[in-house]
């Protein structure tokens, strides 16, 4: 029996709400079971990727923003969206790679905890590909990927009936000043960084896509399939 297949869906530069709408469609298809028009019985789900357009603050199941804070952020020209993922408040915007794997973990032989660790490993591997050898995940209560005390990748997932949604946000050339208006992920005394800041050159989402997909296939032990035969 070969490797499980995951559908690669590159949305390009879209609003965060559009990513959520596509995620919801894939969730419904996976919950309906194999044999649907969009998902064959040999596929484990979809890997949704995009670069968000416009500033967006999101909150998780643990909240993270008061009504007063929400109003203040909107005066800055940002949108604010409550989501069903784990974690607290974070920022999404241009120059960031968003990765939302909508997966049936049973078909991949994974548990939720190993899925979260695999997402962290993908971001660590990508950093290593680019020469940032000190990137690492940290033990609880921390999540995501760090360079010392600087967080470069945030992770927040949701899982119901073995099916995952949401995922990671990797700062490539993100305007980090947007993070100064919140306490990212509720962590006091830590900083936020980006690939561009660490490598002292402009790193685009397009540049990191190929090595990220290599890392994802290796770590999840899957085949990526898409309409344009990207694998």
From TrEMBL:
The record marks 151 as: Lowers pKa of active site Cys. Keywords: Acyltransferase, Mitochondrion, Transferase. Its main location: mitochondrion. The keyword Mitochondrion applies. GO terms for biological process: positive regulation of oxygen metabolic process; protein lipoylation. Its EC number is 2.3.1.181. Pathway: Protein modification; protein lipoylation via endogenous pathway; protein N(6)-(lipoyl)lysine from octanoyl-[acyl-carrier-protein]: step 1/2. It is found in: Mitochondrion. It holds the Pfam family LplA-B_cat. It catalyses: octanoyl-[ACP] + L-lysyl-[protein] = N(6)-octanoyl-L-lysyl-[protein] + holo-[ACP] + H(+). InterPro entries: aa-tRNA-synth_II/BPL/LPL (IPR045864), BPL_LPL_catalytic (IPR004143), Octanoyltransferase (IPR000544). It comes from the Eukaryota. SUPFAM superfamilies: Class II aaRS and biotin synthetases. GO terms for molecular function: lipoyl(octanoyl) transferase activity. PROSITE patterns: BPL_LPL_CATALYTIC. Residues 41-224 form the BPL/LPL catalytic domain. The active site is at 185 (acyl-thioester intermediate). Catalyzes the transfer of endogenously produced octanoic acid from octanoyl-acyl-carrier-protein onto the lipoyl domains of lipoate-dependent enzymes. Lipoyl-ACP can also act as a substrate although octanoyl-ACP is likely to be the physiological substrate. Belongs to the LipB family. This is Octanoyl-[acyl-carrier-protein]:protein N-octanoyltransferase LIPT2, mitochondrial. It comes from Otolemur garnettii. The lineage of its organism: Eukaryota, Metazoa, Chordata, Craniata, Vertebrata. The gene is LIPT2.
């Amino acid at each position: 029996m070969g490797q499980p297949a995951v559908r690669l869906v590159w949305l390009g530069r879209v609003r965060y709400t559009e990513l959520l709408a596509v995620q919801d469609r894939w969730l419904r298809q996976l919950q309906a079971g194999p044999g649907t028009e969009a998902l064959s019985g040999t596929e484990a789900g979809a890997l949704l990727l995009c670069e968000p357009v416009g500033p967006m603050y999101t909150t998780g199941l643990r909240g993270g923003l008061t009504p007063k804070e929400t109003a203040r952020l909107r005066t800055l020209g940002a949108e604010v969206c409550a989501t069903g993922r784990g974690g607290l408040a974070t920022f999404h915007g241009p120059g960031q790679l968003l990765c939302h794997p909508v997966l049936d973990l049973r078909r991949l032989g994974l548990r939720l905890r190993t899925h979260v660790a695999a997402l962290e490993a993908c971001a660590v591997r990508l950093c290593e590909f680019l020469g940032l050898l000190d990137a690492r995940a940290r033990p609880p209560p921390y999540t995501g990927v760090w360079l010392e005390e600087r967080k470069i990748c945030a992770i927040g997932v949701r899982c119901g009936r073995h099916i995952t949604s949401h995922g990671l946000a990797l700062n490539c050339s993100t305007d980090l000043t947007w993070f100064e208006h919140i306490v990212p992920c509720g962590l006091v005394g830590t900083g936020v960084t980006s690939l561009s800041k660490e490598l002292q050159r402009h790193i685009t989402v397009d540049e990191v896509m190929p090595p990220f997909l290599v890392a994802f296939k290796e770590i999840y032990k899957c085949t990526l399939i898409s309409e344009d035969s990207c694998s």
